[in-house]
Amino acid sequence: MSLLELPGAVPAPPESVDAAVAWHHGDPLAEQRSAARGAVVVDRSNRDVLVVPGEDRLTWLNSLTSQLLTGLPDGSATEALVLDVHGRVEHHVELSEVDGQVWLDTEPGRGADLMNYLERMQFWSKVEPALAPQVGMLSVLGPSTVDVLAAVGLPLPAAGHALAVGTVAGGVVVRHRPLRQLTAVDLLVPRDHLVELWTALTGAGARPAGSLAYEALRVESLRPRLGVDTDAKTIPHEVGWIGPAVALNKGCYRGQETVSKVANVGRPPRRMVLLHLDGSADALPETGDDVLLDGPADRTAEQAAERTAVGRVGTVVQHHELGPIALALVKRSVPVDAGLVTAGTAAAIDPDSVPPDSGEPPGRAAIRALRAAP
């Protein structure tokens, strides 16, 4: 039996990236409230999982990704990116170093492409990367997560850490990756034990929840999703991946030149923000729709028809407290208080979602100082 066959599970639409898992279990807004006040369990077993054993695994992955992985302690959990030669994001992975193996999970359908890249870059390194189709993922979220895990015999690692309970062939890898202030734990589980563990977690008090609830909490936490909140031109600075997935104090990886240039001399051309959408609209925008400047109230019909496109919509969700919201990539020059519209729906930038301006980049300051020198 699959988790989609359990009573109450409603599958996501076929066109959804999460079509292989439950969309909700009857009431997605109530599922969000349960995550905020208690605990929920979400089937995320549509994510592709890879495993990299071998004595060179950390130095090898360090040379291929944006994250500093050499010397990564056992029990660590982090994120990493694979960039193209122009610094644009090709892959985003969640990564755990546990018991002599690196576990990677990535977006549904992207594992094969990532695996193909890793195989091409293997050369003489002592590593054995492999897809792990026999491994699925469950996520437990909410302030009662620690109690739910304890009830089924699983410990809660420190935030940003992971551990193995048994081996993944007959046990679970537990990774603690909070969603802002919300406790969130990912469990890598053998697929033939998914229903068993799901039943145990729900029996311990975790409410069944679907991808709609998880996505709403992810959007609220300003955590981007590759291929949904990003496009083919996205660079790490634009979506807040500097820090969580990119180490600025390392080098020698593909795309590093762009990362360093933006960090030291320039500014990213776009930034990811949270949009509040007009809840009275007949329909909400969809991923990929343009974000347009609305213009002054006294504009003519011709001017209204020629609104300027300043960004693209990413994930669109109904939040249990905030109402309809979306992540969007918009031009850096767009004022925080600008009137916006997307797919005929009025939108406003949440000022708290705008990344703080860290001041003049150090490289630009150095150049200005040199020019000013006598």
In short:
By secondary structure, the protein is α+β, with helices and mostly antiparallel strands. The protein contains nine helices and 19 strands. α1 crosses α6.
Structure in words:
The protein contains nine helices and 19 strands. With 374 residues, the protein is an alpha+beta fold. It has a six-stranded mixed β-sheet with strand order 10-11-12-9-3-13, sandwiched between helices. Strands 14-17-16-15-18-19 form a six-stranded antiparallel barrel. β11 and β12 (184-190) form a beta hairpin. It is globular, with a radius of gyration of 22 Å.
**Average pLDDT for all residues:** 91
Total of DSSP H or I helical runs spanning 4+ residues: 9
Which blocks of ≥5 consecutive residues have pLDDT under 50? 362-371
Query: Helix content range of the residues, please?
Result: 10-25%
Return Rg in Å.
22 Å
User: What fraction of residues sit in β-strands?
Assistant: 25-35%
Structural class designation: alpha+beta
Secondary-structure element series: EEHEEHEEEHEEHEEEHEHHEEHEEEEH
Largest sheet: spatial strand order: 10-11-12-9-3-13
Number of strands: 19
How far is the N terminus from the C terminus? Answer: 77 Å
Q: Tell me about the biggest sheet?
A: 6 strands, mixed
Shape: globular
Provide the fold topology.
Blueprint: E1 10-11, E2 22-24, H1 28-37, E3 40-43, E4 48-53, H2 57-64, E5 76-83, E6 89-98, E7 101-106, H3 111-120, E8 130-131, E9 135-141, H4 145-151, E10 162-165, E11 172-176, E12 184-190, H5 194-203, E13 207-209, H6 211-220, H7 256-264, E14 270-277, E15 290-293, H8 301-305, E16 309-319, E17 323-331, E18 340-342, E19 345-349, H9 362-372
Parallel strand pairs: 3-13
Antiparallel strand pairs: 1-2, 3-9, 4-7, 4-8, 5-6, 6-7, 9-12, 10-11, 11-12, 14-17, 14-19, 15-16, 15-18, 16-17, 18-19
